[in-house]
Specification:
With about 400 residues, the protein is mainly alpha-helical. About 75% of the residues lie in helices and about 0% in strands. Pfam families: FUSC_2 (PF13515).
Amino acid sequence: MAENAWDRVTTHAWSVLQAVVAAVVAWTVAGGLVQGHDPFFAPIAAVIALNTSGGERGANAVRLLTGVVFGILAGEAAIVLTGGGGYGALALGVGLAMTAALAIGVQRIVIGQAAASAILTVVFAANFGGGHAGPDRLTDALIGAGVALVFSQLLFPARLVAILRRIEAEALTEMAHMLDVSGRALRRDDDSSSEQMVTWLGDLSRPMTELSRARENSRHTVRLSTIRWGDPGPVLAEDEVIDRLILLGESCLFLARTTAAMSEEERHELAPIVSRMASALYTLADDLSSRQARQDAVEGALRSARRFGAGGSDADPVTTATHLAVEMVATDIMVFAGIRFEEVEEALREDEGGLEVPHPPGVPWLPWLRWRPPVDRIRHRWPSWRRGSR
């Protein structure tokens, strides 16, 4: 538990630091430009706009402004119609803001922000009089969102490769867990029910859906941020990897499904193979930026596929399908790790020899720079030291 908490903190530490600095900058700018009010919403707007996945921070800032505009207009209209800032104005303002946002089909965050803006507009009018909270709040929102856009699109655009690999690792972990459970069930002669297969399919669909959304966001971010000034190669390469990962997930499901229909003797023979495939997937998910991790996964998958061999010509359809599933999973693992498909096919036909995994593309800290420091060599040593210290 403590290790998982530490991993989450270190993963998002850079985003937290950006949000803290953006809040201070927004507060300072709003306080200097707008006199006579407390610019509390400017830092709030900056943090809210940045508090989302890296590829959506720019869109989140636009959503924030949209909600603020709806809320302020609804709040001011409610004050005029009711002649004050009482309970009636509050109810009317919130209702108008949410209805208008729903009418144009915006995201839920815009609806909530519109309601919050209408509430603050009416409450400030009721407590301080004059009804001037709306324009000041809109100015604060513009400043906060502007600061967020400068941070997210110009200075520190999202580390798209790191984001995609983190989601890829989650999907790989789900696949590994599925094969791990399936391998243990084969040893115990447990039947994998259709309900369990549906559960596995649901567990895999969530990270796959998130991965597809992240890939779509990454394409928008590359076009609209300073990433386009740098080297787009790593991002484009990671986009191609996602297609391979989807195929790998389908192969794992196919393997888990076919093993459920095998005889008891065949299950005992296949159990260690399935477990080794799960181990290879866990190794990949542990550090996708490590060439050594990818190499270990490729070697494990290749050995397992060779050891299981191909089904004979007189084998029954279930056995033939299972042999095919093992080969498909091994092939997809190796292709995902960076081996060309032609090399994988040749390696599977041979009894000896191995495959050399290329170095994965680096993860730049500042994507708008073409030059990247050689941090991969440092990372190569650090994961082995970290694992050895556990």
